[in-house]
Amino acid sequence: MEMRLLSWINKHALFCLGTFLLLLLLAITFAGPYLPFVDRELTTITYILNEDKKPVIPPYPPSEDYIFGTDKSGRDLLSLIILGAKETILLVACITVLRYVLAIPLSFLAHKKWLGTHLLLKWLNGLLSYIPTIIIVMLLAMLPPFLLSECRPLFLLLIIALAEMPRAAEMIKLEFDQISSKEYINGGIAAGSSPYRLFRIYYLPLLYSKLLVYMVTDLGKVMFLLGQLGFIGIFISQDFVQSMTGDWQLVNNSISWPMMMIKAFEDIRGPIWIPFFSAFSMTYAILTFNIFAEGLKSFFTRKVRYI
Fold this sequence. Notes:
64% of the residues lie in helices and 5% in strands. It has 12 helices and 4 strands, in the order ααββααααααααββαα.
């Protein structure tokens, strides 16, 4: 029994490694806030007295008291990373799911060449492939109708999801094209199945595994994009408020990982641990999603011939 288990693990080593890393990430995300050393109140510190009894203001570098150091408000950075994980992962998951909820029906309609959707998809995919995604999101996010709207977080979620939706739809359309050449699809058509029944009964069962691989891969891409947006100071959970001098500013009200990168240019010359640990957390998540996606692909390839 043990030999069979070891043989199975050796055979699916990448899948097992990805699963372990993903479970660790989920454990930190959902069970981490309940660990005893986590400061759930995110207590701020105005100053502490050094050995000479002189006040020292935050941020404080990593030490025995603060393993990851503190931010500029004196909040424990390790607690911030753990408490911010849930918001970060949920945002990434929402954007990815929304992207594929829109991409799947569009790809099927494009496959059927319904009302020129295949031409529309080809045009969108060609247009957006020439422009970096971060530029598209940045330009649209700063448009006044979106910037000043009370629904700005929802608009930004939709913009980020739509920015790479044509690419995802094109990939799925190619899968539809490939599956449509199977003999049993012709049997379904000959039996008089409606397009919806063909989609649900004949296409989707063969697409589940590939869709899962594509979506997990996109989780890493969305996390990378959010990190880039945080680096240039644009994020979903921001309020547009007027300062005392009359200027309008975007104010951060989030503890998600990308928002810890918002002053990375300044922090690189000083408290570099603040952007470092947030970047490290995002890098770990991106690697986890990529390894898990490759592991899933390898796992399904051994199980199903058509992948």
